[in-house]
Every structure is written in structure tokens, then in C-alpha cells.
Amino acid sequence: MDFSIGEDRQMLADTLRRFLSNEADWEKRLKVIETEPGFDRETWRSMAELGVLGALFGEEAGGFGGTAFDVAAVFGEVGRSIATGPWLATLMAGRLLAAAGESDALGAVIAGDKVVTWAHLPAHDSDSGEEHDVTASQDGDGWTLTGAKGVVDYLGAADLVVVTAGERAFLVEADAAGVARAGYKMVDGGSGGELRLSNTPARELSGVGAEDIAAAEAMGVVALAWEGVAVMDQLRDQTLEYMRTRKQFGVPIGKFQALQHRMATLALEIEQARSAAINVAARFDSAERAKSVAAAKYTLARVGSLAAEEAIQIHGGIGMTWELPLSHYAKRMVMLGHVLGDEDEHLARYIELMREGD
Amino acid sequence: MNLDYTAEEEAFREEVRAFLRDKLPKRLSDKVRQGKNLTKADMEEWHAILNEKGWLAPHWPEKYGGTGWSVMQKFIFETEAAEAHAPRIIPFGLSMLAPVLIKYGTEEQRQHYLPRILDGTDWWCQGYSEPGAGSDLASLKTSAVREGDHYVVNGQKTWTTLGQHADWIFCLVRTDNTGKKQEGISFLLIDMKSPGIEVRPIKLLDGDYEVNEVFFTDVKVPVENLVGEENKGWTYAKYLLTYERTNIAGVGASMAALDELKRIARTTKRNGKLLIEDPLFAQRLARLEIDLENMKTTNLRVLDAAGKGGAPVAESSMLKIRGTEIRQQIGDLMRRAAGRYAQPFVEESFEEGYNGAPIGPQWSGTTSSEYFNMRKLSIFGGSNEVQREIITKAILEL
Ligand SMILES: Cc1cc2nc3c(=O)[nH]c(=O)nc-3n(C[C@H](O)[C@H](O)[C@H](O)COP(=O)(O)OP(=O)(O)OC[C@H]3O[C@@H](n4cnc5c(N)ncnc54)[C@H](O)[C@@H]3O)c2cc1C
After folding, report:
1. In CATH terms, is domain A119-208 a member of 2.40.110.10?
2. A 155-184 residues inside an 8 A Cβ radius of B
3. In angstroms, rounded to a whole number, what is the distance separating the alpha carbons of residues B176 and B130?
4. What distance in Å separates the CA atoms of residue A109 and residue A45, rounded to the nearest whole number?
5. Dist. CA B382 → ligand 1 center (Å)
6. Fewest beta carbons within 10 Å, which of A24, A36, A54, B317?
7. A22-to-A286, B303, B345 alpha-carbon distances in Å
8. Domains held by chain B: number
9. Residue B164 and residue B211 share a domain
């Protein structure tokens, strides 16, 4: 066995870490999350120019990585700095572009010239309470799409949108006919939007099917699991640091056993979450993938909200302020639980797989 | 044993319900139910309606404007009002300062301040916490030095809830540094318009402004604004802890929120299925309802004991812990019910009259902000850790 991430990946992570701390520091983050796109396009492009996004894809697709542990190395840094930007969308949409051999589009994304997002889950219609999805119809040689998708990452900033419809996936130009985008800010920084399509021309991603979509989602969970553990590490470390310095009743609050045991439990849980993240990356190409995806996302959401809540509580009032980075980490942590299915959805999925006798 | 209300209590409940049906403006209850931001005017509006009815200050003695209700009646009123989504009554003047003035103030102070609290002339805020004095409140440093017929106040308070609206602040200040830290604290009433006071808003993690820092630089406060005796302020502040806290568990607010959550679970579909049909979600919901029902009876038991003359400090701590945990869990479940729609953050939609296109389920827009905002419940009013210390010592005698 080998639990090290590997020298090359560590170098990549270090490069990204330096870049993010120099070019996307906290002050910049506070400013950028007040803007509509929720990230800085120029910074994104410079990051891409460093070659970071290539790590998310294999050589055949114009990248230089593409394994689960390459993805893990990148998203660990995203979590560490809770950087905003279409990281997850790029990964998931990009994986489908790669599967379809769309090398021009993917090349432009890897270079940072184009922003791509991934529109997969249906939109919830506010009036009827029903979920509305996208359907595809064949139109001569081509296809058109009609319907809606909900909570699409960085929709307003996207040049390209990968849209799923049933078991197929399509590439849509964001400025194509019939595209309507309603953008908004997100609780943890960044942005999202509701996508409506009406007879929008789209190019089918050839050869892409349900398996590829599921694989992209699974890789998304790998990314979230590693991002999440990095956020948890930050929540824990920032809280421990505070416990060592904040004094009440004449002693650092870290001296109170009631708090010590809570942090001991949290530290233990975070190590469990790290193991879940390792499991899902290590078993990505195995028959156990589906189960370890469900296990990782369930664990991430469960431990994540514990970490967020404990970190705020142990900080007391200051933990509730916008000014303290900690509260932003807590928000990112809890919101990660809502991406690509929540704790209960993944637990239910796990139960289903267990029943099937896996 | 019998858990039913008596016939008189039942009749009282009907009276309260009828009043709420007639007088609680729908505009206000809608805002509360939808988790929208209440303005100062909104809070004052409800305050005035209650005052007109004579129901604003149930905890006060009748001669100052109280209702003469039993503890059970107070509980019924608080629960019914919350269940009807009435705005919360801002407690600082009515429930925090007034009892101290009534017990320890001079008749002159009572005659001056109490009517102004009732008619809304004075909005009070609470100046206890400081940057260095939170749970360890007695270590507070803001100083008041007597110079002739004035105190001169210097220092800083923080986390001052709704201080931006306040006309007055009641403060714990240090008047003596020589003895035990609890013995050098005084209780002082300070006009927020005094020269030398500066209020700076604190932005909370949900983007909202409900707390402030208050800075005091050579603020002159007339000596007649001292409550009780100099250096006895700690006793007065602690008196509030033993003072009847019928509403500490927030049973009514939790019942109202749980009803809303159940409505949502019965009407919201995820992955083609109603949430209530999802065994995992339903299990979370059922556990909560059971916990809440249990707490309600615990609360009634404590009230009953209080009605018979007890001063249940440690039992109040139990109710505070469980009450805030339940309220937080309801918020947690609301956020979960929203699924991926817990993520959008449209601040403008928290204001009345917002008419942008709704995003996702009608009710989902405020769920995450409320969930995060509710973290405060286990931090303020004596953190839940501090409450557990009280239980450990006072009930368990460990
Ligand atoms: C939204 C909000 C509104 C508020 N409004 C007001 C207001 O209007 N007026 C006012 O005066 N104050 C107000 N407060 C302040 C509130 O009372 C304090 O936040 C509270 O007393 C905790 O103090 P602290 O924040 O300094 O945390 P600290 O006291 O520093 O506590 C940090 C952590 O240590 C824990 N801890 C402390 N001592 C012990 C111990 N002995 N054993 C175990 N654990 C311990 C705490 O429980 C907490 O988890 C408000 C706070 C908030 C968040």
C-alpha cells in the first residue's frame, strides 16, 4: 500500500497553492464574491495558463493527468483556499467533452479561453412545485433542446454549457438561440443560475452515454470529497488556533475539557472523512466505485456539517461574523453537502446498492 | 396526572387566538413565516398593537402595566403568538431592563422609564458583552469613573443586538478594580445620543446586520442613571437568570417552524417523490417532532414548579439547551429540504416587496441564511456549554 499522493502531484498542488495565495488572496476573495460572476476571469485565465486544468484530464484529451488522484490534488487546494471559480463545472463538463473527443472545445477550456459549465439536474418550477428537465429532439442532422436545468454552476459566466437530456449529453453555445439564463450569487461565494432552453440548437456529444455521465458525476464526488476534507482541515486548524489564544476565565478556552473532547471527536471524524476520500479515489476504476461514491458523499456531508457547526460554536460570537474567514469556510463546507446529491440521497443510494448484494 | 389545560386556561387560549386572528396583521405574520427581514417599523407596529391591548408586558406587576397572568397563561400567550407567526417582541427593554428596574430601581426611575418602554418611546439595547468578556462576563473592562454628578464612561461593548435602532443602552460597567471582579460592577443606563458614543455595525455570516460594536469615549452619564447601588450590578444582572423565563425554550416558535416544515415535506418533490415519502427525511422529521413534544411537557413541568414558587435556574438551562438545539435542527432540516436550492443567495429577496422571479421552491431562498443565523442560539444568552456547566453543578452536584 501507498498513501502518498505522489511527487508530481504534490508539485502541482504546491504550484496551485502558491498561485492561489498570491493571486487570489483573502481580500480579493471578499471583493469577488460580491460580484455577479463570483470569480475573477483574469485570475482564472492566469491559473489556466499555469497548466493546472490539464491535470483534470488525460493525455488523449489534451491534458496530462486525469486520474482520480490528479483530481484530488487540485481540489485539495481549492478547498484549502475556498477559491471561487468553475472548478467543479470544468471537471465534469470537461470529462464529457473528453469522452466525446471534443478536443477543440476542451482545449479552449484547458487554456482558460473559454468557461464551460455543466447543466445536469432538473429545475424546480416555483409555481407548480414540479421538476422540469430538458428534452432533446432530432432536427434534421442536428438536435434542439427544450426545458430547464436548476442551480447550474457559474452559468452567467459560461461560454459553453454541457447539457444532459436523458442518457445523452449535448454541447450548447451560451449565446445560442433560445437560451435564457437567470443568474444569482451562491451562499458560499461564486454564482449559479437557472437555465431555460427553447428549441436551442445543440451538438450531441457523440458516443457519450449514461455510463459516461455517471462517471463524470463520480469524478465530481471525488473532487468534492477532497475539497471537503481540505475545508475540514482548515475548520479544525483555525478552531484549534483560536482555542489556544482566546482566553476566558483566565485560561485559554482550549483548556476546558468540555471543548477538548468535542475537538477530539471532530479530529477523529475528519480522519474518517479523509479515508472516505481516499477510498473513492482509489476505487474509482473498480467495481466498487458506485458504493464508494455514495459512501464518500454521505461521509463528507455528515462530517462536514459537524465540522462547520462545531467550529462556529467553539469560536462563540466571532465565529458568526463575515469578517472572520472561518465563517466562509463553514458556509462552503455546508454547501458542499448540497452539491451532487446530499447526505440522505447518497445514503439511500448506498442502501440500494447494498440490497443489490454488492 | 393530567396534561390538559384547565377550562379557564382553555378559555384563555381561545381569547388569545381570537385576538391574534383579529389583530395580528397578515403582512407581518407572512414576513415572519417566510423568514423575511423585519424592519424597525414592523417590530414597533406589533409592539404598539400589544400595548394597546394591554398585553405587552405580561411579566410586569399589574401596577406598572402587567397582565396579572399565571405562568401558564404567559406560556399559552407566548406559544400561541409564536404559532401564529407574530413577530418576536424585542426583549431588551421589556424583559431584561424592566424587571431589574422594578426590583432594584428607584420609584422615580420606574415612573420615568417603564411607560416609555411600553409606548415605544425608548428602544433599549443590552450592553453586557465585550470583546474580552463573553462567557466570562464578570471580567468586563468598560469603566465608569465618578466625577461630581456624572460618571465618565470609557470602553467598548460588542454584539449589541439591534443597537443601530436603540435610543438607550443598559450597561454593565466597572466602577471598582480592587476586589473580586464580580464586586466592582455597576448597572448604568446610557443615552445612545450622548457625545462620545459610536456604533459600528458588524456584518454576520448570513450578510445581515443585527449586531454592533458600541464604543464609549469619555461619555458623561448623570449619576441618577445608576440602577441600585454602585458595585452591585452583578447581582442585578444575575437576577435576570433566576427571573421567570417561561419562553426560554421557544416552544411556540419551534412548533410554528415544525408545522411549516411538515407542510413543505408534504408538498415538495425531490427525484419525483414527496419528501415525506422519503424514509430518511421522514425519520429526521419524526425524531424532531418527538423531541419537541417531549420538551413541551418538560417545559410545562418546569412552569408548574415555577408557578408554585420555585426559581428553576438549572431547569431553565435544560430548556435553553434543548430548545435551541431543536430550533437549530428544524433550520437544518429546512436547509436539507431545499436540496440543491439551498445554495442560491439572493439577498434582495429577504426584503418585503421583492418581486424578482423566485428560484426553486417558493420557501427555499432563506433556508441557508436562517440555518447559519440560528447558530447564534447556542452561543448567546449563556452559551450551551455554559448552561451545561450550570446543570453539572446545580442539578448533578458534580
Ligand atoms: C447574534 C448575537 C447576538 C448577541 N447579542 C448580544 C446583546 O445584545 N448584548 C450582549 O451583551 N451580548 C450579546 N451577544 C453576546 C453573547 O452573549 C456572547 O457571544 C456569549 O456570551 C459568548 O461569548 P463569546 O462570544 O465571547 O464567546 P466565548 O466566551 O469566547 O466562548 C467561546 C467558546 O468557549 C466556550 N466556553 C467558554 N467558557 C467555557 C467554559 N467554562 N467551559 C466550556 N466551554 C466554555 C463557549 O461556550 C464557546 O463555545 C450576542 C451574541 C451573538 C452571537
Report:
1. yes
2. 182, 184
3. 17
4. 10
5. 7
6. A36
7. 38, 59, 28
8. 3
9. yes
Is A119-208 in the same CATH topology as A7-115?
A: no
- Looking at domain A211-357, its CATH class is mainly alpha
Q: Which of B244, B260, B277, B348 is catalytic?
A: B244
Interface size, chain A vs chain B, as Cβ–Cβ contacts under 8 Å: 142
CATH of the domain at B308: 1.20.140.10
Across A315-343, average pLDDT:
98
Can you tell me the distance from the alpha carbon of B19 to that of B28, in angstroms, rounded to the nearest whole number?
15
Residue spans per domain, chain A? 7-115, 119-208, 211-357
Here the cell at position B254 is 419551534
The mean predicted confidence, pLDDT, of chain A is 96
| Minimal Cβ distance to B205: which of A129, A130, A322 | A322
- B392 touching A, CB under 8 A? no
Candidate from B129, B378, B388 with most ligand 1 atoms within 8 A of CB, to mutate: B129
Q: How far is CA A162 from CA A139, B77, B366, in A?
A: 19, 55, 29
Q: Counting beta carbons within 10 angstroms of the beta carbon of residue B18, is it exposed (0 to 12), middle (13 to 18) or buried (19 or more)? A: exposed
Distance between CA atoms of residues A270 and A275, nearest Å: 9
Query: Residue B267 is part of which domain span?
Result: 250-396
Q: Is B239 inside a domain boundary?
A: no
Rounded CA gap, A95 and A222, in Å?
A: 13
Interval B17-27: pLDDT, tens? 999 999 999 99
For residues A331 and A33, give the distance between their C-alpha atoms in angstroms, rounded to a whole number: 13
Cα of B277 vs centre of ligand 1, distance in Å, is 40
Dihedral pair phi/psi, residue A239, rounded to 5°: -70, -40
Annotated catalytic residue B244:
yes
C-alpha cell of B322?
434543548
Query: Is residue B95 included in any domain, yes or no?
Result: no
Is residue B372 a part of any domain in this protein? yes
| A47–chain B nearest CA distance, Å | 26
Look up the ipTM and state it.
0.96
> Mean pLDDT over residues B150-165, rounded?
98
B204 interfaces chain A, CB cutoff of 8 Å: yes
What gap in Å lies between CA A170 and CA A177, rounded to an integer?
15
* pLDDT at site A358: 54
Fold of A7-115: Butyryl-Coa Dehydrogenase, subunit A; domain 1 (1.10.540)
Distance A316 CA to ligand 1 centre (A): 5
